[in-house]
Every structure is written in C-alpha cells, then in structure tokens.
User: Fold these one by one.
Assistant:
Number 1:
Amino acid sequence: MSHKSSEFRRRFVLNDLAATGALGARIAAGLRRGTAVALEGELGTGKTALARAVLRAQGLKEEAPSPSFSLVQSYDLPGLTVAHFDLYRIDHDAELAELGIEDALDQGAILIEWPKRASGLLPEDTLFVHLASGIHGLRYVELNGPQRWASYF
Ligand SMILES: Nc1ncnc2c1ncn2[C@@H]1O[C@H](COP(=O)(O)OP(=O)(O)OP(=O)(O)O)[C@@H](O)[C@H]1O
Ligand SMILES: [Mg+2]
C-alpha cells in the first residue's frame, strides 16, 4: 500500500466559497468505493467547506455538520456511502482504530481532515488536497494523487 501517489498534480486558486463548491463537484465526480480524499492544511483553511461541497455534489441535501467533535459523520448518498472524518482531536492509535476508517473504505469513500494521523491507513487511491490561506480570503489548493484523477480536472 502506497500513499505517495504523485502522478497527478494540479494547483488552483479558490477566490471564494463558490470556487470551493466547483472544486468539490469535480472531486465528487471521481469518488468511488475505496477512495480517500485527504484534506490537509492549517486551521481554518477550508477543509470542512470543501468536504461539504463534495457531499453536496454527491447529493446531500442538508448542510453537513463539521465532525470536529463527533470525529466521523457518515452519509448514505445516492450511489455511494461517504464518511467524513476529522482526526484533529485524535491522539492515540486506540482511538483511531475505533473510528473504523478501514470499514468506511470497504463501504464507500472517505473524506478525512488532518489525515496524517491515519497515514498508514490511507489507500492507494488517495487524492491529497492541500489547502493554504492567502491574502483577502484567497485559498491556494494543491491536488496530488493517482493519474486517474486527471480526467476529472
Ligand atoms: N474558498 C473560500 N473562500 C472564502 N472563505 C472560505 C473558503 N473556504 C472556507 N472559507 C471559510 O473559512 C472558514 C474556515 O473554513 P473551514 O471550517 O472549512 O476550515 P477548516 O480547514 O475545516 O478548519 P479546521 O482546521 O478548524 O477544521 C469558514 O468561515 C469558511 O466559510
Ligand atoms: Mg474542519
């Protein structure tokens, strides 16, 4: 199992939440069972906003709550189950094991904030999304993953 896939690499600037929404729709189009989307970036860079955009594009009608306290929220969406994890508050491997990341990958796709805490569990088909904040609310995003993702961008 490798999580250093770097065949596909792309950078974007997100001017606003509408741009985040458009990026989320592209990512949603590439999701399948066993896919992970690793949402990296400092506090407040827009990881949850992008996860919400993916979930919305995948058919979620209501606003997804942030899993910062629940640690995971799972959604049975048309055609795909998607679990949204936030590992910020995880500090023991025992807690990580209880969260069921591997089961979630067996059942569907996962979106995972602060993914470094679970780097050993990420599948080959992981799209790494690195977000960074710029001036005037801009976000810079870098995507990195297996070549198959190129067809969605
Ligand atoms: N592309 C964007 N343009 C403007 N504002 C944005 C954008 N993306 C996110 N934001 C805003 O930035 C704030 C933080 O976003 P969000 O909660 O998604 O960040 P986060 O990376 O999940 O934070 P945390 O590290 O606390 O989980 C929110 O107010 C959100 O609306
Ligand atoms: Mg968040």
Note: The beta strands are 8-14, 36-40, 72-77, 80-86, 109-113, 126-133, 139-145.
Number 2:
Amino acid sequence: MINEVESLRDLEVTCTNCEASCCRLEAMLFNDTEIPDKFIVINTRGESSMKRLEDGWCAALNRKTMTCTIYEKRPWICREFEMGEDECISARAANR
Ligand code: SF4
Ligand code: SF4
C-alpha cells in the first residue's frame, strides 16, 4: 500500500484522471443547510453525513460524468478537500 501511494505521488495528480475517488470518503455535514434531505443520513449519535451507495460513492455523484450534482451547494468538507493533499493521494490509491 505504501509503495502504491508513493508511486502515485510520481504521477500527475489531477481530478481529470481520477474517478472521483474522494467522493467515496465519508463526507460529514456540519453547518451545511442546503443539502437536499434525500442525500443526508443521520447516525445513531445524531451526526449527519452525505448518503453513500453500496459501492461507497456519494449518492450525490452523477455516475455517468462522475461529477457532483450539487456542486454549488456541496458540503463544506468537500469544498475544503484539496487536490494533491495526502487524503487525496490516499483516496486515489484506495480506488485503484
Ligand atoms: S481531489 Fe483528489 S481524490 Fe478528489 S477527484 Fe480530485 S484527484 Fe481525485
Ligand atoms: S457532495 Fe459532491 S463533492 Fe461531496 S462527496 Fe458528494 S458528490 Fe462528492
């Protein structure tokens, strides 16, 4: 896994050659008031996150284009996620 992660570091990291890997991560919701209810799940502790489908991808992802269908209203945590950061590299490796 580490070697795989390190080898990915040598590749160009860009969303255009990625199958929305980060959209398989849990996306917690904080003060995100514009997310449609159908995309929200609430756990037993009362915490909200984006609903994910059985294969792990976020329910708000357009599966044909692999783009976010609520991009303008996407959660804060998705806005903060930066291409090329460690979590991005790890998500890409996990999605291979
Ligand atoms: S931010 Fe990283 S993991 Fe997310 S789509 Fe872009 S390259 Fe892929
Ligand atoms: S809300 Fe959009 S950007 Fe965030 S995980 Fe879901 S599909 Fe990806």
Note: Residues 2-94 form one domain.
